[in-house]
Amino acid sequence: MNEPKTSTPLEEIADRHVLEILQAAAARRPEDLEILFSLGDLLTRMGKIEEGLQVDLTLARLQPKDPTVRYNLACSYALLGRKEEALEELKRAVRLGYADPEHMRSDPDLESLRGDDRFEKILARLERRAT
Q1: 81-114 as b/e, with b when 16 or more CB fall inside 10 Å?
Q2: The CATH number of the domain where 49 resides is what?
Q3: Given this model, what pLDDT does residue 3 score?
């Protein structure tokens, strides 16, 4: 599982402040996709992976056919070591049109899936489609 990125004390204060703002905004506008995307990303960057997963699940409920939403959900599952769910969401993301094999190959969020034959098959399918 990836560790949160090291940040300076000033960056940590800023992240906490932005987190408070985004959480308040999400409480007022619980279906605002921009707010939710930003909140999920920040939570994950801060190492609050379980909370980020909850945001990703909300986004998946609101946008079930969005390949980026499904990809991000796969990343959250992978970061939590929930390999089966991560692989299912990656397959779903690719079926829905996710189209960036280079990013998938190098994304540190998916490190726990590398070396798994099922991950390699999903990636190979995506690479074939991209050519």
Answers
A1: ebeeebbbbbbbbbeeebeebeebeebebbebbe
A2: 1.25.40.10
A3: 46
